[in-house]
Amino acid sequence: MEIKIVRKVLDVNAKMAEQNRKLFSEKKVFVLNVMSSPGSGKTTTLQKTLLHLMPDLKCAVIVGDICTTNDADRLATSGVPVVQINTGDFGGDCHLAAHVIEKAALDLNLDDIDLLIVENVGNLVCPAEFDIGEDARTVVLSVTEGEDKPAKYPLMFRECDSAILNKIDLLPYLDYDIELARKYILDVHPDMPIFDISAKTGEGFEPWLAWLRKKVQQKLI
Ligand SMILES: Nc1nc2c(ncn2[C@@H]2O[C@H](COP(=O)(O)OP(=O)(O)OP(=O)(O)O)[C@@H](O)[C@H]2O)c(=O)[nH]1
Ligand SMILES: [Mg+2]
To answer: Is the CB of residue 38 below 6 angstroms from any atom belonging to ligand 1?
Structure first.
């Protein structure tokens, strides 16, 4: 019985996600869903990413957290429209679902957006199960989390189109084997593009930005 209920929730979500996808396609908005465990550096990475992409691309962000507007405040400093969702207001969900994105999008002028970035709730499990109508998914894994997370949480790495290995500025202080981390990612998702970056120093951003720009351009033309 429980399994049936979960299945129904995901089926309803899938239908709503398709409606979102149709709307985003009509409006020619590329949607990127960014996911990770709490604190791996999603917001910091997105702050730098937005600074590089503007003004060539018109960007906006939907950011999900259980509580606080901390991330929305940080992202708004880049000057893009930001919609904060607090899932604590409706049950404290550990992920953003398609119906929540539909509501948040009502607060945005989609005619004036090329790239809509969704920073999902910090969680390496649940967000991967919920299609929100996005065009691409990126997982951020920081080098302080251990190499084996892709093996322990494979769904996230299987479902994403690219992976960011963040906080490489800390490598000199850690016993972290970055080649082993890559192997774990590629075991789950062969050919996954992996970008080594430091959102703090800005190191390694160009290949990541080039990948994202190309994805967006492919949809806009
Ligand atoms: N040294 C270092 N610290 C970083 C880097 N990126 C982020 N941080 C720090 O890591 C902490 C968490 O970063 P956030 O960007 O808030 O992480 P997040 O994934 O958005 O966190 P949640 O939204 O709470 O899940 C902050 O103290 C950042 O300053 C990095 O590349 N290097
Ligand atoms: Mg954040």
So the answer is: yes
